[in-house]
């Protein structure tokens, strides 16, 4: 078993991955500044897994803090989640995103190199592909053309890691490009807890179903898709977490990019219907104008993950909605309760 440094692990995907790391017998050292997450999630992670973790409260831009972490723990590899992730916010505050996501990653990489730890799984995103006309399904070989600041920060960190690995063959890096994570742990103890108005579809739908919001806004119903709404590749966060453990066992020379998605897109209205089935609650919605930059279709070519990682998504749309609803019912105000 290994000792894994997990940055930003109190967040949505990090917390679910932590549970699986601990359940698999790994030791976890956590660094998080809780700028957009809650410490209570880590308490619940330990409750679910029945094992402790080591928490260091701090920021990865603090190199002295990172040096102390590596000096105090025999770290074998790093899973790097830390960063800001809201597309709209990134457009409004680009400097903050470049500082957190790019400068933070550079700081981490420099201290890892000093410590001689050169194994990393990086939390990237399908936003690095952007919206390429006529593409729809994206393989890892597709060109990278992000259309927003958040996506550009992810691409810049990918470029940083490629350049570092090219300069030093000891580096082994897996870039995991997520599509649309949804769902929650089946216990209902951890899940997605967005700040303010949700940016993503599933938490917004869940908040409508639980009565926290009046209705969902559907951005456009005139796309060239079967029901006119956008098609996206939704993946259960439990499957996504499992992908990180698979990546830890698949390091090879240099940098490897791998999509984590189901390869099967669903429309906005299909997701709404599935959530109504799972919750037994109506989800009223209104159609509003399209958002600038939204693609009609975006989903993963997931063949490389099956071939290289031995991983594939197992949990379908009904399970995604059932688990998301359980989390929402148990935690109507997220970790604030």
Sum this structure up briefly.
It is built from eleven helices and 15 strands. With 337 residues, it is α/β, with parallel strands linked by helices. The chain has a domain at 3-185 and 234-264 and 297-314: 3-Layer(aba) Sandwich (Rossmann fold).
Verbal overview:
It is globular, with a radius of gyration of 19 Å. It has 11 helices and 15 strands. It has 337 residues and is an alpha/beta fold. Strand 1, helix 1 and strand 2 form a beta-alpha-beta unit. It starts with a strand and ends in a 7-residue tail after the last helix. Strands 3-2-1-4-5-7-12 form a 7-stranded parallel sheet, with helices on both faces. The protein has a domain of 232 residues: NAD(P)-binding Rossmann-like Domain (Rossmann fold). Helix 1 runs parallel beside helix 2 and helix 5 runs parallel beside helix 6. The model has no long low-confidence stretch (mean pLDDT 95). Helix content is 39%, strand content 19%.
List keywords for this structure.
seven-stranded parallel β-sheet, alpha/beta, 11 helices, 337 residues
Helix content: 25-40%
Task: Give the SSE order as H and E letters.
Answer: EHEHEHEHHEEHEEHEEEHEEHEEHH
CATH homologous superfamily of the domain at 3-185 and 234-264 and 297-314 - what is it? Answer: NAD(P)-binding Rossmann-like Domain
Determine the strand fraction and express it as a percent band. Answer: 15-25%
- Regarding quaternary structure, what we see is single chain
Q: Strand sequence of the main sheet, in spatial order?
A: 3-2-1-4-5-7-12
CATH topology of the domain at 3-185 and 234-264 and 297-314: Rossmann fold
Spatial separation of the terminal alpha carbons: 35 Å
Question: Biggest sheet, open or closed, and with what strands and sense?
Answer: 7 strands, parallel
Per CATH, the architecture of the domain at 3-185 and 234-264 and 297-314 is 3-Layer(aba) Sandwich
CATH C-level class of the domain at 3-185 and 234-264 and 297-314 is Alpha Beta
Question: Runs with pLDDT <50, length 5+?
Answer: none
Number of strands: 15
Gross morphology is globular
Number of helices: 11
Radius of gyration: 19 Å
Average the pLDDT over all residues and give the rounded result: 95
Summing up helix and strand content along with how strands pair, one would put the structural category as alpha/beta
């Amino acid at each position: 078993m290994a000792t894994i440094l997990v940055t930003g692990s109190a967040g949505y995907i990090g917390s679910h991955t932590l549970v699986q790391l601990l359940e698999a017998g790994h030791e976890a050292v956590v660094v998080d500044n809780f700028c957009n997450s809650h410490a209570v999630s880590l308490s619940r992670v330990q409750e679910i897994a029945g094992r402790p973790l080591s928490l260091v409260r701090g920021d990865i831009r603090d190199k002295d803090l990172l040096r102390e972490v590596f000096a105090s723990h025999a770290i074998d590899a790093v899973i790097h989640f830390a960063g800001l992730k809201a597309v709209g916010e990134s457009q409004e505050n680009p400097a903050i995103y470049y500082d957190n996501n790019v400068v933070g990653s550079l700081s981490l990489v420099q201290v890892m190199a000093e410590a001689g730890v050169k194994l990393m799984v990086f939390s990237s995103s399908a936003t690095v592909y952007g919206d390429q006309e006529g593409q729809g399904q994206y393989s890892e070989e597709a060109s990278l053309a992000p259309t927003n600041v958040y996506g550009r920060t992810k691409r810049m960190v990918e470029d940083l890691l490629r350049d570092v690995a090219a300069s030093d063959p000891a580096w082994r890096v897996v870039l995991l490009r997520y599509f649309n994570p949804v769902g929650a742990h089946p216990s209902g103890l951890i899940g997605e807890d967005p700040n303010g108005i949700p940016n993503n579809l599933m938490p917004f739908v869940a908040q409508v179903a639980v009565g926290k919001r009046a209705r969902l806004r559907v951005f456009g119903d005139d796309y060239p898709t079967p029901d006119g709404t956008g098609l996206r590749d939704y993946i259960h966060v439990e499957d996504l977490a499992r992908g990180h453990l698979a990546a830890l066992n698949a390091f090879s020379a240099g940098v490897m990019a791998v999509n984590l998605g189901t390869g099967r897109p669903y429309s906005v209205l299909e997701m709404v219907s599935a959530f109504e089935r799972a919750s037994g609650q109506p989800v009223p919605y209104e159609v509003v104008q399209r958002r600038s930059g939204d693609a009609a279709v975006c989903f993963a070519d997931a063949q490389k993950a099956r071939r290289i990682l031995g991983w594939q998504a197992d949990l379908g749309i009904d399970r995604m909605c059932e688990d998301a609803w359980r989390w929402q019912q148990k935690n109507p105000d997220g970790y604030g309760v």
